[in-house]
Amino acid sequence: MMHLPQVSRWVDSVDNQLIQYFSQKDPLTHPLDRAMEYSLLAGGKRLRPVLTLAVVDCLGGNTDSAIPLALASELLHTYSLIHDDLPSMDNDDLRRGKPTNHIVFGEALAILAGDALQSEAFRLLIDEPCPDLDLATRLAILSDFAHAVGRNGMVGGQVMDLQQAGKQFDIERLRQLHGRKTGALIHFCVRLGARLGRANAREMAALDTYGHALGLLFQVTDDILDLEAESSVLGKTAGKDQDQDKATFPKLLGLEGAKAFADETLSLGQDALTSLERDCKLLSDIAEYVRNRGH
Amino acid sequence: MMHLPQVSRWVDSVDNQLIQYFSQKDPLTHPLDRAMEYSLLAGGKRLRPVLTLAVVDCLGGNTDSAIPLALASELLHTYSLIHDDLPSMDNDDLRRGKPTNHIVFGEALAILAGDALQSEAFRLLIDEPCPDLDLATRLAILSDFAHAVGRNGMVGGQVMDLQQAGKQFDIERLRQLHGRKTGALIHFCVRLGARLGRANAREMAALDTYGHALGLLFQVTDDILDLEAESSVLGKTAGKDQDQDKATFPKLLGLEGAKAFADETLSLGQDALTSLERDCKLLSDIAEYVRNRGH
């Protein structure tokens, strides 16, 4: 994801754990495992688990023991991509430059692979050992996760997105949409790191602000990238949102306005980090990376 | 479901809680809530939550405080029906005599309603208050649930079912398929009741045997019903499994053989109840009901 040795090591660890996870396929459900594995190992940047690990690191916690739980967001994210790409949703044939899950495995198996990835994401947070993690904190993590991914979180945001047609979207409504669709899971990743790193209340509040800003920044820059980039660079069909006449930040604010909004959002996140009074260089770099990626 | 006053009261309580659950729809995601509600309130028999409550009752526990957690299996079951009915899966237009979710709300919203119901099922088990439930037991319940519903449970069973074509299925393979596809969640409902009713190790083992037998019995009798019943009685397209040349218990054992197998499975469950040395009349009646329903 970023050319930092620390991040590269974490990405490698995450990738290794994911490969390990599917090393013993269940002979009875082999095609399901292959479909789950295909999308999980299709070249994701691992931003979400890395974000969790960077927060743990910033708070002086143990990143190694955080990895199994940090993977949950990657499984959840992958399920959401598989379902978003389906013919009845965005109908995308390409993702990260590769055929989408339903193109390779068929629609039925793609739906089921997504379903199983959601269950497995919960299972990791429920079951995976994590030294010194008390039961109450584990349940608090699970509660954060359940709220971030369901009806009031990611799925709710996806429904808002699908139902946009013919509706007037102002900037506040667009923020709510993406706060759920993309932001809630990114915010969760930061909170997970905060809980695993034993943040106190003041630190949690600052990291909440950072996580919220980062989720928003992610979508604003995605909209900007989508407008500017070519298919070959993004690995997905560029300009698609524009074609479908969906509200985007550049459409509501203009391209320059959207860039200014991204910069303000970045500043908000950076200010929150400053207030932490810890060495947050990596978290700051991640926010910079999200702002400037793809250029 | 059954004409017993106790069960009717529980069914009413479950229905009321489900109605309550959607009484305040989120204005931003109203269509999602309506799609979830539609299938949840489409006339299910509530077998799964009732089963949990009957186990709690048998063990002398508090059924009222068990209801919020008992609902989780109904949400999960409903999500599985919505996804199973999709065009790329079983392609069913009718369920319980009503148009299926994707017929009413479209395919995209049906997929998302299922996705959100899975998240919400976990959320209920994570978040809903339950007096005297300690954190370790709650996490054990969540672990049971995650295993019952995902890759090695329900979704895995659905994949085995979809991939049957051209494969030789013996009775053992068919048991594995249905043990996952249907049995795992029914077994979970019994275990949930056992944990909420503070079963000791001996009682848990007996209830595991009962839950396992009940899950199997459910599928064997479903196969028998599907062969015998008319569309009008079942409220779904009868004889469908036969048409699609899928393995069923009657196909492998003959109709009389399948009935004998159902009776043996029923006895196995009843014997386990006897060994409990408690008043298990209701659990016994539920098993009888599953064996004889629809005739």
Give the SSE map:
The structure is a homodimer of 295-residue chains.
Chain A: H1 5-21, H2 30-40, H3 47-58, H4 63-84, E1 94-95, E2 98-99, H5 101-105, H6 107-127, H7 135-149, H8 154-162, H9 171-196, H10 201-228, H11 231-234, H12 240-243, H13 249-253, H14 255-276, H15 281-292
Antiparallel strand pairs in A: 1-2
Helix pairs in contact in A: 1-3, 2-6, 3-4, 3-9, 3-15, 4-6, 4-9, 7-9, 8-9, 9-10, 10-14, 10-15, 14-15
Description:
- Two copies of one chain form a homodimer.
- The first copy, chain A, is mostly helical.
- The first copy, chain A, has one domain (5-292): Orthogonal Bundle (Farnesyl Diphosphate Synthase).
- Chain A has helices at 5-21, 30-40, 47-58, 63-84, 101-105, 107-127, 135-149, 154-162, 171-196, 201-228, 231-234, 240-243, 249-253, 255-276, 281-292, and strands at residues 94-95, 98-99.
- Chain A has a two-stranded antiparallel ribbon with strand order 1-2.
- In chain A, strand 1 and strand 2 (98-99) form a beta hairpin.
- In chain A, helix 3 (47-58) runs antiparallel to helix 15 and helix 14 (255-276) packs antiparallel against helix 15 (281-292).
- Chain A is globular, with a radius of gyration of 18 Å.
- The two termini of chain A are 14 Å apart.
- The mean pLDDT of chain A is 91.
- Chains A and B meet through helix 2, helix 6, helix 7 and helix 8 of A and helix 2, helix 6, helix 7 and helix 8 of B.
When the domains of chain A are counted, the total is: 1
Q: How widely separated are the two ends of chain A? A: 14 Å
Largest protein-protein interface = A-B, 48 and 48 residues
CATH architecture assignment name of chain A: Orthogonal Bundle
| CATH fold topology of chain A | Farnesyl Diphosphate Synthase
Can you count the helices of chain A?
Answer: 15
Over all CA atoms, what is the radius of gyration of chain A?
A: 18 Å
CATH domain class name of chain A: Mainly Alpha
Spans where pLDDT lies below 50 across 5 or more residues of chain A:
none
